[in-house]
TrEMBL record:
Keywords: Lyase. NCBIfam families: PRK00823.1-2. GO terms for biological process: tetrahydrobiopterin biosynthetic process. Pfam families: Pterin_4a (PF01329). The keyword Lyase applies. It comes from Antrihabitans cavernicola. The keyword NADP does not apply. It catalyses: (4aS,6R)-4a-hydroxy-L-erythro-5,6,7,8-tetrahydrobiopterin = (6R)-L-erythro-6,7-dihydrobiopterin + H2O. InterPro entries: PCD_sf, Pterin_deHydtase. Belongs to the pterin-4-alpha-carbinolamine dehydratase family. Its EC number is 4.2.1.96. This is Putative pterin-4-alpha-carbinolamine dehydratase. The lineage of its organism: Bacteria, Bacillati, Actinomycetota, Actinomycetes, Mycobacteriales. It is an enzyme of class 4 (lyase).
Amino acid sequence: MALLTDSELSDGLADLPDWTRSGDSISRAIEAPTFPDAIELVRKVADEAETAQHHPDIDIRWRTVTFVLSTHSDGGLTAKDLALAATIDRLAAG
């Protein structure tokens, strides 16, 4: 898959205001109401990621879940990352 240009990435992130770019990845931290809710969000994201064959790095700290996305096989950010970020936003919204 083609890497996104800086312009394409900026345009994509305009629709994903909670995501931040850091080098070749984008990330978002989400605070869930409870620890079980955080784990359930991770489970839902894992199901979607498995279907998409695109897997985020996930860090869980009590109720805060941080997702980091990058298409490692392509060496940077692709449309897969923006698509999964939108999916994570949808799942986090409930």
